[in-house]
Amino acid sequence: MYLCWKFLNLPEPTPIQYDIADYLQSNERRLVIEAFRGVGKSWITSAFVCHQLLLNPQRNILVVSASKNRADDFSTFTQRLINEMPILQHLIPRDTQRHSKISFDVAPALASHAPSVKSMGITGQLTGSRADLIIADDVESANNSQTQLMRDRLSETVKEFDAIIKPDVGRIIFLGTPQTEMSLYNTLEERGYKTKIWTALYPDKTQTVGYGHKLASVISEVTDKEGKPTDPLRFDDV
């Protein structure tokens, strides 16, 4: 991630961003990352996807978002990192491989029905897709979670991920910010997911108890900064 940020002329990643990246690399096969808007969840995960393809070009990664455009933005950014970063340019697809912004291969990948990276909207045709890593990036939005019926429909749709993912080796990663108290993200632990939450401000004691084991330790272990920004290098008190 440091190399990506340096290449993009961004400041060095913050402790919160490094902590999210560290959790992405954990051994958890089903995980949920809940963090505040602007922390860079998608950018961090794009860098993670590049790293995964660098380690194993045979991986098949599916990116799913509430809107097709959102998912396409993720895959387009990932492809640009591959095309432009010198350390990744050996992954640029050959002329005989898929190379669109929404579905592309990396050069060392063997022939497969599934591309190296593919982007889809949550309402798209998920059936028939195959992946060993699913990135569910903001699959919950204000538009698809306004009513209980809509939330139930979304909850049933994401169950399709278990049919898509390759057994034994597959991982599913949810990235998002809850839209309601009855958010999909708050119910995923019942299905075996492990959740970590990064708040924008350090919580008080009551809030810390409410978050419980889900609160990231990099935040829960700080007890003298209640109400202060957790990422002061990027966000101030205002």
Automatic annotation (TrEMBL):
Pfam families: Terminase_6N. SUPFAM superfamilies: P-loop containing nucleoside triphosphate hydrolases. This is Uncharacterized protein.
